[in-house]
Write a structure and sequence with these properties.
Layout lengths: L16 H5 L5 E6 L4 E6 L10 E7 L1 H22 L21
Antiparallel strand pairs: 1-2, 2-3
Organism: Flavobacterium soyangense
InterPro entries: DUF3467 (IPR021857)
Protein name: DUF3467 domain-containing protein
Length: 103
Amino acid sequence: MNNQKPQQGQLDIELDEKTAEGIYSNLAIINHSSSEFVLDFVSIMPGIPKAKVKSRIVLTPQHAKRLLKAIGENIHRFEVAHGEIKDTEQPPIPLNFGPAGQA
């Protein structure tokens, strides 16, 4: 990628090809304890009653709140540029992953 050294105060972040491909998810399950938030990203296929967690992200409560703010700001900018994102009604998905799973 870029062979330049980062200037002071900058962070050099690498993104390998595999990670850059991303992972598709159409369901997020969020659980939390007093010290962390756990976000599980799942890909559910129609007609298939079983699905696997494709990615898990563990965040401190402070980082979870920053993520919420950043996503909110990005959704606002997206809607200004492209119009309101419509939230369609989804049938409930039975979740039996644990005590506090939410989609």
